Predict the structure.
Amino acid sequence: MTTRFPKPDLSVTVAGVHFATPVLTASGTAGTGEEIAAWCDPKKLGGMVTKSVSLEPRPGHPYPRTVETAAGMLNAIGLQNKGVEVFIAEELPRLRAMPTRVIVNIVGNDQDEYVRLAQRLSDEEGIDALELNLSCPNVARGIDNGADPTWVGQCTAKVRAATGTPIIVKLTPNTADIVSLSRAAAEGGADAISAINTLVGMAVNYNTFKPRLANITGGLSGPAIKPVALAAVYRIVKAVKIPVIGIGGIMSGTDAAEFLIVGALAVQVGTAHFRYPDAAIRIADELAAYMQSKGIAHVSDLIGRLDV
Amino acid sequence: MNRHRRATLVWTRRVGPGIYHQRLADSLIARKARAGQFVHLLPGPEHLFRRAFSVYATDPDAGTFDILHQVLGAGTRCLARQPVGAVVDTLGPLGNSFSPPPRGLTPVLVGGGLGMAPLRLWALELVTMCRTGRKKIHPPVVVLGVRSRNLAVTPYQLPMLRLRPHWATDDGSRGFQGTSVGLFAAMIDRGELEPAQIVAYGCGPEAMMSALAHLCATHGIRCEVSLERAMPCGYGVCMGCVVRGRGASGYETYHRVCRDGPIFDATSIVF
């Protein structure tokens, strides 16, 4: 008879927020809750990170916005969203009613916009944390600023001063030194770091000579970027004391486990949602099964277990 | 709650050059799918994304649904080669469906290429509405266009209902020489169709849908179009499959084809 280990405990606390599982939805891949709620039980989601919300509505980029690539995809959506006021009026009530943690991802054109967004959202109930998108590769100035440690530190500090809500800073991998960005965010007062956002990429139609994305370049995500993301998380974890949330190509429970082993406290699942609407829950279930098979009782016993 | 389905491949028939008619078994999709809706199939485990196909036929009693597609890339090729009995990971039925014609009008179904797939199911539903008399409508007129006669796939089971498509071919090798929209325009010009007494439903390439929308606007014909897009998610979260459109108050916005469509009132799209 094989030994049956007890069902493991997946709960984690990140940035003072308690999550039932360490598997959250990544921004821009689970909408604002309405669509995904038709496909899964939100109670089983670790947490829901919304699509980026900006001060003013943004129309987004023209079609085509996505391309499937080898083991991944490129996207250039252009942060299409209805703006913070419509978000608060129409989408937040629905999110608030969902029995899961709600993290609102915000994006601004400049530091002042991040501050105004954070202030506006701090007045609202039911937001467990804010995630600062300092790293979208598809909008002018998105990376330019996000790859500058000084700017990242200033922006984080200004938002920190403006809100008591926990802040997660989402970093770009499109830089020579993501570690400096993570230090700047930590020194600016971030409660946690999430990494990585997508890598800048491009695809060309060799028959028509046209780029496959209307925006010409886009952000690469999916299994193709997982090794890059793991290395980034590994380096950030060693550099900062605040929690790190790992993102990048997680398709299975063991993919999630790899991020936890290198030291991430939680993970976000993105591209996998485009294949399975209930991806975050499937991955949490697979993670639990993996832990059970290894006899690991609590997710904290897995975090940072990297044996080098 | 919706769940992804495990549909089983019943058979695959090659019905034209690179064109495949496939039947899959899933009782829920067979029962629930309406004309215009689509299914989102994962061609095989090595593929990251699903592929969207309009529902071509359903048999609620047998618990099957059919798709019609042309091999265009690795995904459709993989699907066409799946052995009988293969389990195909499926989401569906997804999206909205065609809306019934107003009382007393004749529905005209205008298809281009494999755009005839959802129109075939719609023709069947319309014939059923006529027969049961639940809706006072006239039997549909079906106008189909393809590049050449060898691509003119006779819509499954339509001849049994005495619905004979009016064919148009780009090269004139079968029926009218020109597009299906050209044939539709000619039928109006010849007085075979009276604009005030018809409603149009279209599915086909975007340039064709644009021409159809323009023609219908000129004649004041109500028109619904089915649009096609590359769809990563198929259920509304990725925002990839967008089309430029007009919102309720006329402002320009991007509609999601998967969730706001794939069927749109032609006037709500900016072609």
Observations:
- The longest helix of chain A spans residues 279-294.
- Chain A has a mean pLDDT of 93.
